[in-house]
Amino acid sequence: MLLDGLSQERLDHIEKEYIKTIQFSSLQQNEGFPLVSLNEKILLKFDDLNGDEADYYYRISYYNHDWSPSTLFKNEFIDGFDNVRIDNYTTSFNTLQTYTHYRLELPNDDIQFKISGNYILEVYTSEDELAFSRKFCIYETMASVQVGVYHPQNMDRFNTYQSVQFAITPIQTSFRNPDQNIKVVIIQNQQWDHTITGLTPQYYSGRTIEYRYDIPSQFEGGNEYFYFDTKDLRVTSPNINYIDRAELYESYLNIGIPRKYTEYTYAPDINGKFEIRNIMGPGDPDTHADYNYVYFSLAADYQLSDEEIFIYGGFNNYQLADQNKMYYNPSLEIYEGILLLKQGFYNYKYVSKQDEILNKNSLSGSHALTENEYQVLVYYRNIGKQYDALIGVGNANSFELIN
C-alpha cells in the first residue's frame, strides 16, 4: 500500500518560522533522517534566527511501526529523563543575519535508549510551545535484509517505475507467525511522505521469507534533482544566474523548465538533501555561514488552475507550506518563489499538489534510470511484547537496476 504523506497528520514538522536549517542525522553521515543502531550517536543541529540565545528543551516519544502512538511508558524505552534544556549553543559570527546555532547529541548523559523502533524528538520553547519535531529510527541487527531494485514487468511502467524486491532472514531463531508479526516499510530517498507498507510474505525458503512483488512495491523513478551552491556569495556558480547584496545577499537561480516530456539526462545529485558549507572566510560553517534569499522561478505558459506549485527538498523536511509555495507572475509567464536559506549545497525540485495529493513528478517527469536510494525497514512484534522492534534494515540503489 502506497501511503501519501499529505493524507496523514505529520509528526515531523516546523511550528516556528524563525527555526531554520534543521539537520538531524548520525554523526557519520549527512542523512535525510537518523537511522542508527542501538547506542549509536545521532546529532541534531538547528538555527534560531532571533539570535537571542533562547532556551530550548527536548522530549522523546515512542511510536509503533505505522507511527501510531505506543502504549509504552517512558521508562520502558529510555533510561534517564528528557525534557532537558539544550545547553550547547553558539551565536553566529560575522554574518549579516544574526542567529543562534544549537547542537544536541543523543544518547547522552541524561538519556539512553533501551529498545529499537520508531521515535519522535520534539523541541519546545521556554514557554512550552512546540518549536519543531523530527522522526528518527533505532535498529538492532536481528535479521539480514537483501534488497534489489528491478525494472517493472508490466511494459506500461517499464521506463518510468522501479520495483523493490527483498528477502528477510532471521539471524538466530525463526520468526513466529511472520504474516502477522512482521511489518515492512519501504522508503525512497529517506523521505517519509511517500512510503510503501502493508506487504505480507509471498514465499518461504527455509527460514528466509521473500517479497517478490511487482506492482505493489513500485515507486515512480522520478528525475534527478536540480541543485545550486551558495558556499561563496561573491561569485555565481552553476545554476545561479545573478547575486546581489542588499540587507542580505540575494541569489537568483536560472529559470527552470518542466521536464515531464524531456528525455532522461543523468546528473549526479544527493537525492533532495543539503549540506551547509562556506568558503568566504575561515571558521565553522555552522556558525560562520550566512543566510541569503534564494529566488526560484519555473517557466509556465499559463497559470495552472487547480494545482499548487511548491519548491521541494530537504531544506524544510519535504513539507509543502506557504513559505515554499510558488506564485504565478503572468507578465513574465513564470512561477516565482523566495526562500531564506543558509549557505551551502542544495538539491531541490518543483512539485505540485492537487486535491491534497502530492504529485512529486508531474513537472519533472519519471524515468526508470533515475538514481534513487531505497531502504527496507523490518519491524517485528515478538510474542508477549508491546512494541514493534526494528530488527533489520536493507539498502539498495537503483544504479544497480536489474532487468
Compact overview of the structure:
The protein has 403 residues and is mostly beta strands.
Question: How large is the radius of gyration?
Answer: 22 Å
End-to-end distance, in Å? 23 Å
Low-confidence stretches: 4-8
Number of domains: 3
Q: Mean pLDDT across all residues, rounded?
A: 93
Task: Quote the CATH topology of the largest domain.
Answer: Immunoglobulin-like
Strand order of the largest sheet: 1-16-15-30-31
The CATH architecture assignment of the largest domain turns out to be Sandwich
What's the tally of helices?
2
| CATH class category label of the largest domain | Mainly Beta
Instruction: Report the biggest beta sheet as strand number plus sense, adding barrel if it closes.
Output: 5 strands, antiparallel
Structural class: mainly beta
Shape: globular
Share of residues in strands: 35-45%
State the helicity in percent bands.
Answer: under 10%
Task: Count all strands and give the number.
Answer: 31
